[in-house]
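Lecture notes, continued. The same structure-token format from the folding unit now serves as the input rather than the output. Read the line below as a description of shape only.
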């Protein structure tokens, strides 16, 4: 299984953490950023497979996306629309070179799109080893050893 990297851009820390926990899977690496410029600095070591861009009025707007290089516009982008953010002009963004652009209005839709992009064939089975004592078994107090 190839590990995938997701970049989440949201200026509000609490919301960013909540969204990253919501989309987290064992085979995804999730990194969060305050601005889109922070995502693609030359010092970044990880290669991004998907960008979740949360639109917020006066903080994260679609005009900030227009400054990206053309090769970055080829990445899949999910635009999460907040209740007070303006509706994005998807046609204009596609004219500017974005090839894979999708809208979501809530965390559930974001997770559905993430799994569709990064795990279209389904998630592999977990590698975690289950706890040795099944949850349904009732354990009583320890019994003394008989000699």
């Amino acid at each position: 299984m190839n590990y995938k990297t997701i970049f989440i851009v949201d200026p509000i820390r609490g919301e960013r953490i909540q969204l990253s926990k919501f989309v987290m899977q064992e085979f995804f690496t999730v990194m969060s950023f305050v601005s889109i410029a922070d995502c693609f600095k030359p010092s970044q070591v990880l290669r991004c497979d998907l960008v979740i861009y949360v639109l917020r009025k006066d903080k994260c707007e679609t005009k900030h996306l227009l400054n990206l290089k053309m090769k970055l516009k080829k990445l899949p982008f999910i635009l999460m629309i907040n209740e007070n953010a303006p509706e994005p002009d998807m046609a204009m963004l596609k004219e500017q070179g974005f090839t894979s652009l999708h809208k979501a209005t809530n965390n559930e839709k974001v997770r559905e799109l993430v799994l569709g992009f990064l795990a279209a064939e389904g998630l592999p089975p977990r590698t975690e080893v289950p706890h040795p004592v099944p949850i349904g078994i009732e354990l009583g107090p320890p019994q003394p050893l008989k000699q």
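Point for the exam: The CA atoms of residues 22 and 108 lie 8 Å apart.
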